[in-house]
Amino acid sequence: MKSKSDSKHGKRGNDDEITSAVPFSPDVRAAHTAESGTEQGALPSNTAPNNSIDSNGVSDLPYFQALRWGVDSLYVSYKGKLSLEMTITLRRLKELAQSQRPSDVAVAQLKIGDHIFEVKDKGTGLFAFILEDNAFRIHIAKSGSKAVPMAYVKISSQYLTARTPWEIVEELDDLLASISHDMEEPKVSRIDLFVDFVSSVNMESWDRVAWVTRAHQINAYSVSGQFTGWTIGLGGAIGARLYDKVLEVVTQSKKEYLFPLWKKAGWDGSTRVWRLEFELKQEAISQLKIKGFDAVMEHLGSIWSYATTEWLRLTEPNAADATRSRWPTHPLWALLTSIGWEEEGGQLSRTFPISREPGRDWLMTHGLSSLTSFMAAQGVYDFDQGLALFREELYLYHEEKAFLFGQSFSEYIWDKVALKIRQYNRAMNADQLSEQEKNAKRLNAAADAYRKASDGE
User: Fold this and answer.
1) C-alpha of 378 from chain center
2) CA atoms of 53 and 39, how far apart (whole Å)
3) Which site from 30, 236, 264, 295 is most exposed, i.e. has the minimal number of CB atoms within 10 Å?
4) What is the 8-class DSSP label of residue 126?
C-alpha cells in the first residue's frame, strides 16, 4: 500500500494515479438474463459471438489475466450530532418534498460544498432524512445516539471508478462536518472486494463439492444452456459471487464505463470478463477485529486472504481423501488468492458527473422515438412538417393540463423542468425564483421550522 500523506485519511491521488476502486455489481441472479460476447472492436452485446476460440476449438486466452481489482461497494457510517440549524433546514425541506405543489417539491434541495442534493420526501428506519446525488446517498438521523449513527452513506459505484476510497471518504468527512459536530471517524458498514479477470478456464468445469466453504448455500446459474456464474453464502455476513460481468453490464446495470478501463488493462473488447467478488458486512468486519475506515483500507490484503483461504476455497476434489480441507487448491483459485493488494488494481477514470441527468444519446434517442411515433400516427413522413405538428399538439395538450391545474403554460413548464433539475442535481431551483418569492419562502420556512423544533415536534 502507499504510505499515507498529510491528508486526513491518507492515500490522496493525482491525475495519473491508478487505484483498485471499481463499481458495485447487482445480484448475479438478476443479472444473468442472456448470453454475452461481441465481435472484436464492437460494443459488447448479448447476441454477438465470443471470439476467444479458434477454428480448432482451442482457446487463445491466457490461463489467467487480472484486469482490475479493488473496492467494489462501500458503505460508511458516522457517529456525531446534527446541528440544530441543519435539523431545522432538513425538516422544512422534507416537508416541501412532501408537498402536493410541484413548485414546492422542486426546491427540496440542499447544497453542501460542490454537491446539490435532492432531499427525499421520506426517511427510512431510524433515519429521518435522505439526501442523494450521483456520488452519495446519505441517510441522516434526527439526532445522534450511541445506538444510531448520525449518518449512513452509500458511495456511488461509479464514483469508486473515478476516485480512490481515501479521497472519497475525505471529501465525505468535509461535507458532513459542515452540518454536524462531535463527528467521529467513519466506520465501514459494508465493503465489497473484487477481481475482474479473463481466463481460459471453464467456470463450470467443477461441481459444487469443489467449493470448500463455511457457507451453507452454493448456487450455479445458466441461461439457455450458457453457464453464467456461482453464488456462495449470499445473505450472510460474507457472501461471494463468481459471474460473467460483461453479461451483467449489457443486460442489467448498463455500467459501460467499465469497458474502457478493462481495455486499458488489455481486454480485447469481446472476451467474457469474469468477476470474483466478496461482500463483507459489518458483522464480518468486526469478527476480523478491524475497526474504522483507515484500518479496513490498510488491511484489504488480509481481508481478501481470509475470504479466499479460510472462508472459501476452490479445490480439486480427491475421492481418495475424505478430509476436504486437505484437497489441493485449484490453480485458478491460487492465482486469484495471490492478487497483490499492496499494488494498485487498475486505472482511475478521473471523470465523474455529480449530476444524474441522462446522456445525450438517451435524450436524442427517446426524443426522436416520441416524434416518429407521433408522425407515424399522423401519417407524416417529412421531418420539419412532423416536428411542427408535434410542437403544436404538444403545446395544446399541456396547455389544457396547465389550465386544469390553475397555472399558466409557462408556470406549468417551469414546474416540470424544475422537478427534473432537482432529480438530476443540476442546479438550485430556488436561485431561479424572484427575490420576493425567495424571501417569502425563506421567512415562512424558518419561522415555521423553528417553532416546530422549539416545540419538540
Assistant:
1) 42
2) 12
3) 30
4) T
